[in-house]
Design a protein that fits this description.
Distance between the termini: 17 Å
Strand order of the largest sheet: 1-2
Number of strands: 2
Number of helices: 4
Order of helices and strands: HHHEEH
């Protein structure tokens, strides 16, 4: 992962842990804080996704998290072959939607 991707992932994890720390049901004073962290988490998720897609490919192609994801996702572990296009399409579609 690039430095930007690592820092984005760390920020995402930190905000996720903070959000999980809230007790349910939320009390009145905590609602605004919860919503603020949730909005920050949404933004951090977006920035992380952008950092994954915005990876300049130089040298080894498999240094890209996205390329590695696609390579691994294309393998059918049980059959020990590559997945058929029909089985791989939902994964690729999800990646395109994020992009």
């Amino acid at each position: 992962m690039t430095e930007t991707q690592v820092s984005s992932l760390e920020r995402l994890s930190t905000l996720g842990r903070r959000l999980l720390g809230f007790q349910k049901p939320l009390q009145e004073p905590n609602i605004a804080a919860y919503q603020q962290i949730q909005n920050s988490l949404d933004r951090a998720c977006l920035l992380f996704c952008v950092s994954l897609v915005d990876h300049t490919l130089r040298g080894d192609l498999f240094e890209s998290v996205v390329v590695g994801f696609l390579a691994v996702s294309g393998i059918d572990v049980k059959k020990r072959i590559f997945k058929s296009p029909v089985d791989f399409t939902p994964l690729l579609s999800g990646l395109i939607k994020i992009g």
